[in-house]
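Give me structure tokens for this 444-residue protein.
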Amino acid sequence: MNRDEFLICREYASIDLAFTMYGLYSMLFEEDDEEITALYGAPEKGYYEWFLRVLKKLLSQEKPDTDTILEAEAELRELRRENKERMEFFTTLTDRLVVYEHVLNRCELRYAPQEKLDAFLKSNPDDEIMIQINLYVAGKDKDPKTAMRRIQSLAGEIPTQLTRQKLFELIDRTMTLYLDSDETSLDEYLYMLRMAGMVFPTGSYIGEYPLLEKPLRDFEDTDLKEMDEDRYNLLRDEIFELSGKLTFIIDYYNDLQRCTNDLLALCLSKKWLPSDDGVFLEPAVNAIKTCVDGEPDESVFVPLEGRIENVSVKLNAQMAKVVAPDMNAEEEEEYLDVATIARLLSNSIYADIDPLFVESKTVTKELIREKEKVFFAELEEVIKSVQKPVKKAIFAKIIENLPVMFTSAEEFTEYVRLNLFGCRDLSERCASIAIIKQICLEEE
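Here you go.
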């Protein structure tokens, strides 16, 4: 890339860094909710201080030398790696939360009088519900891809009557879609299924976030079959509050990752700019410094407003043209830095950059069987360790992520009749119908 193109990278990263730092500072130091501020403990403040140390060092020199840039790059890569690991821990908590919310939603009508359930079913006959479902699936535009996506989302809300073996057969059928593709695609699919199935390592952060972990432990320690209404209300409230808290802590780490990505992109860009060019876009420096000094000033952000939209168009256009050259040593280094910048400034803020490129195998039947065997063994262990309502919820969430669960509209209709209308637990059946009706009505 030429100087002007690296300056576009600098402009985008500088402006994004300024505004994201403002949000990050507000979360850490201007949040009034004590329950939220209690979430930001030593790790969160420590990561922020780590980031500030690197940033201050770069700001302290008008034109940092090569050694300073390389040292900052190394630190930012390490901070980014640690931040990503911690974010993966919060992802595991979120995936457990989703499954437990699913279970509690199906328990909502368990304590309702029998006559109320009977009246609900009478006023929502199976044929009318099926008509609503079919209208929702077809949609106004009659787009097959949209229809399939809606079928998958509804399938995740329907009580499952599947056996473990049948579920494994369905998963096996979808795996064949990845034959002759690259291994990375298959791994991404299995990662998604692992998250849906609560198959994940607990990580090394267990115990650091008692406010987040307690509601999940309370749920797991409850005998769901014998749970009374008071216990249900307690768990429901705890899980609801946990959802909000997880949103806040995840927003924090997302902003920290964006700041880290922006600053690392600035360091990489500076390596290929003339020595007279600074690390940052000049108008953004004052805004960034107000955040560093702990006194964000909205007035200094005004000159930056509206600029990032225009520069992002230029950035996307030039990054779309990045191709590997016939390399000598310098060309190869520049290409790797440019490709890294493109990944850092993309919407995939946790995308791998160390290593940047991973050689991927072509998926064969043997590779599918190998990976499938490992996943099924992991899922089997989870299924054995959880209560029946949780197992059903896991099955539903996995089904929601299977791309070819149904090969025809008739097959889906039969699935609905068997699993939803044939559900013997009336409270679960009524709760599921209510959820599905709401989904269909929201589309209208």
